TrEMBL record:
<dbReference type="InterPro" id="IPR001650">
    <property type="entry name" value="Helicase_C-like"/>
</dbReference>
<dbReference type="InterPro" id="IPR045562">
    <property type="entry name" value="RecG_dom3_C"/>
</dbReference>
<dbReference type="GO" id="GO:0005524">
    <property type="term" value="F:ATP binding"/>
</dbReference>
<keyword id="KW-0378">Hydrolase</keyword>
<dbReference type="InterPro" id="IPR011545">
    <property type="entry name" value="DEAD/DEAH_box_helicase_dom"/>
</dbReference>
<dbReference type="GO" id="GO:0016787">
    <property type="term" value="F:hydrolase activity"/>
</dbReference>
<keyword id="KW-0547">Nucleotide-binding</keyword>
<keyword id="KW-0238">DNA-binding</keyword>
<keyword id="KW-0227">DNA damage</keyword>
<dbReference type="GO" id="GO:0006281">
    <property type="term" value="P:DNA repair"/>
</dbReference>
<feature type="compositionally biased region" description="Basic and acidic residues">
    <location>
        <begin position="564"/>
        <end position="575"/>
    </location>
</feature>
<feature type="domain" description="Helicase C-terminal">
    <location>
        <begin position="549"/>
        <end position="708"/>
    </location>
</feature>
<dbReference type="Pfam" id="PF00271">
    <property type="entry name" value="Helicase_C"/>
</dbReference>
<dbReference type="InterPro" id="IPR012340">
    <property type="entry name" value="NA-bd_OB-fold"/>
</dbReference>
<dbReference type="InterPro" id="IPR047112">
    <property type="entry name" value="RecG/Mfd"/>
</dbReference>
<dbReference type="GO" id="GO:0003678">
    <property type="term" value="F:DNA helicase activity"/>
</dbReference>
<dbReference type="InterPro" id="IPR014001">
    <property type="entry name" value="Helicase_ATP-bd"/>
</dbReference>
Length: 780
């Protein structure tokens, strides 16, 4: 390790390498506050989530910079990065003419240690800043005569060699020169830092802390035979190779090993969860008479897929082993019908059934459609709606009814995750549109009910890549609905450039014509108000649904995962006009001649429950046939007469999200249209993305295109991208092969040694991993 003791380095000053701490006692659990004397540094680290030595050494760089060759100034090739040892001969500060700020110019020549600089090639280092103190500090560091190691790419300016903002390391004395040169010419890991600590200081601190723990302090988790067969370094060595790589290959080899370690730990955790889940006692729901009555009364015949899945679920629920099933089905494939069959099997067998919906709107709609189907079948089953926004008195009444344990269908939003929700006899939990929930949240519903574990059915319309499913839902069996019910037509999808006024006008006229024909139309905008902070960006959910919080709000899920990941293509373009907002759009549409005499309603996550219900009722009945809303209508909303959807700023939505939105129309057998309004530049990635949605109705194709063009996190929601699941390196899609390998190894390890008794370190890591998921669940 070259953990530097050279205090002239950017970050070296505050971490004495010998602080009089008994280094034999240092382990990964040691708090950094016990080792670092600089309290500000300790609190800066804490702001990055680094509290222990273990946190620090697993604070991984997000990339590594190639090493650069050491050259003399005369050997420099403009346009290539290189490092040089130079001596400062002159410096000057000038106010910048065009902008406010200062420019520091430093003339340097090749350093010949011990010899005063005389002649030879010169170069100029240039630093700009609006901050005078920064310039002053830099000027003072680069005073005449100082020896400096610079690193950067040289250009030429008026035939002069020029380095703009090179990295500089001031060499305190000739003895430390070799160390600095070696460090500068090695590959350099790059870290995410923040305003309280620079990437360089962070790196320095990590190296210092890592040097305090030896191999016994960092025991291996991956069993020795696997390390050997896969050619992985030991854990302590891997960490050193990541934070202080001798070569770029070493860096990647070590990252590969650490990634594999995460995959192995998580796969073992998942396999064990599955084992435990299956071993538990559960409800035996053998009475199918209610289900059969209901299926007979349906006004349509089931698709083959629906029939098959309903049969499998029937067997699961009667088997005596807890069902754990993921149902994936294209938008409109009829998952609700399947869910109700499962729920009625529980109720018909004398128990309760819970359906959890991601939004208030969807929960309300589920209640209405379940009510209709149940009434049509002539069944007498109570349905309770439990949501966060309910008035206290009503909520108390409903909660009391639910707590009595009488057989019933219970439809709920996140409220169901609250502690005041008590349903003593729940035999099945159905979670609708799983991709809107954090992974961990479903865990709490797997809680035992009086010693018995409810059956679990998780439904999603977002096709989840196989390895992602293996990682997040590895403990679930998977069923699929691949066909759409008869009579459903593909939605005609048109991409419209917003600046094309003539086409926009024709589109509005078309929407009006459909409304006059008795149909309904949605208009979707990414924001609620003009004055609201921009939120839509590229996220999976353009609007934060924050009103279903009840007592333990999970609304922060979307915003918490920002940061490093390559969230979108091309960054936020500062010059673009603000994204469209619901309120302003409603006003604008109301003033258009095309919508004269039409009642327009709006719906956003900010509306209270009663308003939402009233708005949806007016829209569904056709009294107000034009609904302007945020993405609150994204999933599951089912108004059969709706035939048109217009999505503004479509280029800012995720592809799967657009596909979901498009799934809101054409549900009643009439032709349907989706208009994706774009302000993307012609030929841009954003425009090509929209073309994917236009060209296919295949949700799986769209999801994989989305994956290619973005990152996994965006397709299934950041909450599931791993950030909250204890993964620091593992990417569930990009690392598919690693996950598959780890899965095989995990199965073999558990077969040979179910208790992992000869793999104590690995067993401990698995427990930590599982506990981390639980902690995230409790919102700690
Ligand atoms: P999703 O899978 O997207 O949740 P839904 O369960 O909301 O789909 O069903 C979409 C629509 O299709 C509903 O109006 C539902 O009544 C209808 N539907 C479901 N199954 C069938 C079927 N087998 N034949 C015809 N219509 C069906
Ligand atoms: Mg649905």
């Amino acid at each position: 390790m070259s953990a530097s003791s050279d205090t002239s380095l950017p970050g070296g000053a505050s971490v004495p390498s010998d602080a009089g701490v008994d280094s034999s006692a240092v382990s990964l659990d040691t708090r950094v506050s016990a080792l670092l004397t600089n309290k500000r540094r300790v609190s800066a680290l804490k702001s990055l989530g680094i509290v222990t030595v273990g946190d620090a050494v697993t604070y991984y760089p997000f990339r590594v910079v190639d090493p650069v060759p050491l050259r003399t100034l005369s050997g420099i090739v403009p346009g290539q990065a290189s490092a040089c040892v130079v001596t400062v001969v002159e410096s000057r500060v000038r106010p910048m003419s065009s902008r406010r700020g200062w420019r520091l110019e430093v003339s340097v020549v090749d350093a010949r240690p011990g010899v005063a600089p005389v002649t030879g090639p010169m170069a100029t280092l240039v630093f700009f800043s609006g901050k005078r103190p920064y310039i002053a500090w830099m000027e003072q560091r680069l005073h005449d005569g100082s020896t400096v190691v610079i690193r950067g790419m040289a250009g030429t300016f008026n035939a002069d060699l020029q380095f703009v903002h090179p990295d500089v390391d001031v060499v305190a004395d000739s003895a430390s020169l070799d160390g600095v040169v070696e460090r500068v010419t090695r590959p350099r890991p790059v870290y995410h830092a923040n305003s309280r600590i620079s990437a360089e200081h962070l790196h320095e601190t990590i190296l210092q802390l890592l040097s305090r723990v030896d191999g016994t302090g960092v025991p291996d988790r991956i069993p020795e035979p696997i390390l050997e067969s896969r050619g992985f370094p030991h854990r302590r060595e891997a960490l050193a190779m990541v934070h202080d790589p001798a070569s770029v290959e070493d860096f990647h080899r070590a990252i590969g090993a650490l990634r594999y370690e995460e995959a192995l730990v998580s796969q073992i955790a998942v396999l064990r969860q599955r084992e435990q889940a299956r071993a538990g006692r559960t409800f035996v729901c053998g009475n199918r008479s209610m289900v059969e009555g209901y299926l007979k009364a349906l006004p349509f015949s089931l698709t083959d897929g629906q029939r098959r899945v309903i049969d499998v679920i029937a067997r699961d629920m009667a088997s005596g082993h807890p069902m754990r099933r993921l149902l994936q089905g294209e938008v409109g494939s009829g998952k609700t019908v399947v869910a109700l069959a499962a729920m009625l099997q529980a109720v018909g067998s004398g128990h309760q059934a819970v359906l959890v919906a991601p939004t208030q709107v969807l929960a309300g709609q589920h209640v209405r459609s379940l009510r209709r189907m149940i009434d049509d079948a002539g069944l007498d089953v109570p349905i309770h709606l439990v949501t966060g926004g309910m008035r206290l008195a009503r909520r108390r009444r409903v909660l009391a009814a639910v707590a009595s344990g009488e057989p019933a269908l219970i439809v709920a939003t996140h409220a169901v995750f609250s502690r005041t929700f008590q349903a003593p006899d729940v035999a099945v939990v159905v979670i609708d549109e799983q991709h809107r929930f954090g992974v961990e949240q479903r865990g709490s519903l797997g809680r035992d009910c009086e010693g018995r574990r409810p059956h679990l059915l998780v439904m999603t319309a977002t096709p989840i890549p196989r390895t992602a499913a293996m990682t997040w839902f590895g403990d679930l069996d998977v069923s699929e609905l691949t066909e759409l019910p008869q009579g459903r037509r593909p939605v005609t999808t048109v991409v419209v450039r917003e600046e094309d006024g003539a086409t926009m006008a024709r589109m509005f006229a078309h929407v009006r014509a459909r409304i006059d024909a008795g149909e309904r139309a949605y208009v979707v905008c990414p924001r609620i108000d003009d004055d609201q902070g921009v939120r839509a960006s590229s996220g999976n959910s353009a609007e934060v649904e924050d009103d279903d919080g009840f007592e333990e709000p999970y609304a922060d899920v979307e915003s918490s995962a920002d940061g490093e990941a390559n969230h979108d293509d091309g960054g936020r373009d500062g010059g673009r006009p603000p994204l469209h907002a619901v309120r302003q759009m409603a006003d604008r549409l109301a003033s258009l001649p095309q919508f004269a005499g039409i009642d327009i309603v709006t719906l956003t996550g900010r509306d209270d429950d009663a308003t939402k219900d009233a708005v949806m009722a007016r829209f569904a009945s056709g009294e107000a046939p034009l609904l302007v809303s945020t993405t609150v209508i994204e999933v599951g909303v089912d108004v059969p007469q709706a035939s048109c959807i217009v999505v503004f700023d479509a280029d800012r939505f995720g592809l799967s999200q657009l596909h979901q939105l498009r799934g809101r129309v054409g549900r009643g057998g009439t032709p349907a249209w989706a208009f994706l309004i774009s302000r993307a530049d012609p030929g841009s990635v954003a425009e090509r993305r929209l073309d994917v949605v236009r060209a296919t109705m295949d949700g799986a194709r769209i999801a994989s295109a989305d994956l290619e063009m973005r990152g996994a996190g965006d397709v299934v929601g950041d909450a599931q991208s791993g950030l909250r699941s204890g993964f620091k390196l593992l990417r569930v899609v990009a690392d598919a092969q690693t996950i598959r390998d780890a899965r095989k190894d995990a199965e073999r390890l558990l077969d040979d040694d179910p208790g992992l008794e000869s793999h104590v370190q690995l067993a401990g890591a698995v427990v930590d991993f599982s506990r981390a998921s639980e902690t995230a669940l409790l919102g700690a």
